[in-house]
Amino acid sequence: MVTAGAGIAVAAFAPGPVAFCLVSSLVGLGTGVFSTHVGPLFMAACPSGAVGRAHAVLTLSQWLPLLVANPVIGVLARAHPVSVLLLLWGAGACAAGAAALGTRAFRTAVLSGGTRRGEQEPETG
Q1: Which of 7, 4, 10, 3 is closest to 83 using CA atoms?
Q2: Please, what is the end-to-end C-alpha distance for the chain in angstroms?
Q3: Measuring CA to CA, how many Å separate 80 from each of 26, 48, 75, 95, 113?
Q4: For residue 75, how many C-alpha atoms fall within 13 Å in the half-sphere facing its CB?
Q5: Which of 5, 54, 70, 91 has the most CB atoms at less than 10 Å from its CB?
Q6: What single-letter DSSP state applies at residue 68?
Q7: pLDDT of the chain, 125 residues: tens digit per residue
Q8: Which among 89, 42, 85 has a CA at the least distance from the CA of 62?
Q9: Could you tell me which of 59, 53, 50 has the C-alpha nearest to residue 116?
Q10: Using CA atoms, how far apart are residues 87 and 23, in angstroms rounded to an integer?
């Protein structure tokens, strides 16, 4: 998220559409890396009987902030230049990334060999 936040903030200074698109790719890459690291950790920690519900919560947690942020961005866009909004948005994303990096659980998390917590691996042989 720090990468995505930095990309959003840099987008405020993009000199043209090509540069803006390149910076947007960096934003997508940063967000994708964050999501593909946090999502599996969340899903691996949920009980096997609640995978569907856990996935729904994970999806909701990704989309719910947009329901709030999009109208707020629209209102702010009427009063401020886009560059100011991009800088604020980038700062917020960087803060979220820094908060995640500051959390010991995220820094030290490791997916176990494919088994869910509380389950045993199937015996082979």
Answers
A1: 10
A2: 44
A3: 24, 48, 9, 21, 49
A4: 5
A5: 5
A6: H
A7: 899 999 999 999 999 999 999 999 999 999 888 888 888 888 888 888 888 898 898 889 888 988 998 899 889 989 999 999 999 989 999 998 899 888 888 778 877 655 555 555 555 54
A8: 42
A9: 50
A10: 13
- Token readout for 86 is 């991009």
Widest CA span in the chain: 68
Q: What token pair was written down for 51?
A: 């995978």
Predicted TM-score of the model (pTM): 0.72
Q: What DSSP letter does each residue of 76-98 carry, written as one string?
A: HHHHS-HHHHHHHHHHHHHHHHH
| Cβ count near 123 (within 10 Å) | 5
